[in-house]
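Hi R.,

Here's the chain you asked about this morning:
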Amino acid sequence: MDRIERLLRLGYLPSQLPPCFTTSTLAASHALLLASWSALPAAKAGKITKAPSAKAEVFSVARAGHLRRSTSLPNPVAQTYLSLAIVANWASIVRHFRRSRLSASHPRFRRDAKRAASLPSMQTLFERRLLLGAGYRFVLRTDVSRFFPTVYTHSIPWAVHGKAVAKKNRSVTPKYFGNLLDLAVRQCQDEQTFGLPIGPDTSHIIAECIATAVDIDLTKKLRASPVGFRYVDDYYLFFETYAAAEAALASLVRCLKEYELQINFEKTKICRTEELREDTWTHALRSFTIAPDGQRQRSDINHYFDVARDLAGTHEDESVMVYALRRAGSVIVRTENWAPFEAQLCLVAAAHPVTLQTVARLLSTYARLGYPISKSRLSRLINSLISEHAPLEHHSEVVWSLWMCKELGLALTPANVDIVAEMNSSVCILILLDMSSAGMLPKAPSHARWKGLESKDALWEDLWMLSYEAGVRGWGGLSDVHVRTDPHFEAMRVRNVRFYESAASITPLFAPKPNALKQHNLQTVAQLLKLDDLDEVFEHEDEEDDYGSPIETDEEDDDVEL
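And the predicted structure, written out as tokens:
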């Protein structure tokens, strides 16, 4: 798999989407598509082969503490060209990265990673802080305010070539590839010059280019590389005196200003090094032991969730409940204790919508093992969530509720069919249309609102995915006439490029080992579940976030409280 294919297959869509949304066929066909697009008359007419200007779709994601994050689904043509621009200049980008001695977050293409461009695990950061800070009295802890959304795209060439040089050389040439990156990013977002799309791995690579330039400038201003590190946009810098830390902060503010960026003063503090501690709530949850079976397991489950709720109430801005569910997923709940565990999941999902993706994976895992899923209880839950969040365009809550509805065969109410149909969201409506096609809805959704998507212009607007997918599948009353008349998207259609896969499923958290039944001379999984030591017969999937850590990072500080 080449790097362009990796960026498109593993690093394109936000990680918070259900698995039915895929870019695998786009990734597999990227070379043929780029050749086809480059041969179009419009491409030949210009000096630079570029994507047409296109809008990205916003996918609103729930965060802890009732905050939200706006991630992006860029147009596939624009995203493919951006991936090409990065890969074509990867050697120069890596040389640029290596100029920073502060960065602990250089994106790398690793074959064993779940995302295209992986970052070092956050699990190593606490020890890194400990080792670097030992012997220093003070630490400067700060980050960049709303880093991705406030990036000025013209600062990309400033970062990789130097500001003075870049301003004198604005043409797109192999030597000044930063101008190409600037152009490719702007084509992904309707030619806007502010912001990087949150979600694609390409944005992490470009953000690191800019942050590296800030590191270089900071080192020059301080006349030495400061002790400490930067992880994406989080800084931990260590000093012998408070005055030195203050001077470094002032210098960092000036360096960021050169790239139209600002310090997040609400998260900035200078304190004694010994005050830096790992989050205590992770220790509390990690050290909690749930019994492997019996009444003790049932009691431990209920106690564990009580502890998690107390910690979540104390640390409202942290992803306590997400971590709590991931830890709970490492224990196999016995069938006799399933009912209270499922009830606890429902309570958590209703109070903490940020956990819905994890709840969906837990429910799917146990349903495949034959556990008695309560469809009436879960149907009440998902209908309540949809009726609350769909009118607010809270996409992640609705899409995961719909996914559970589809995956577990839950009943959606007629009123909620109408509410979802009114949303401005390709991902929510595509699952709704899939369910309608499969006869899983109590009524057919109205097609009137979507008829306007049957046009060439709609393929370059924010609902491009719905326009394309519904068109080629004949869903929602749309045909593929508009797709056939657009040369870029027609090239994708004839190569069977799809962004939605009806048969996709979530990878289970755990499953029987390949030879478990044979080794124990058993016939069914239900019999395996009655064995004393389930860890001997089941293997667990490692549960990680985008950066290889079980704890969510706040690398893109664009959260908005609602």
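The two ends are 41 Å apart (CA to CA).

Let me know if you need anything else.
M.
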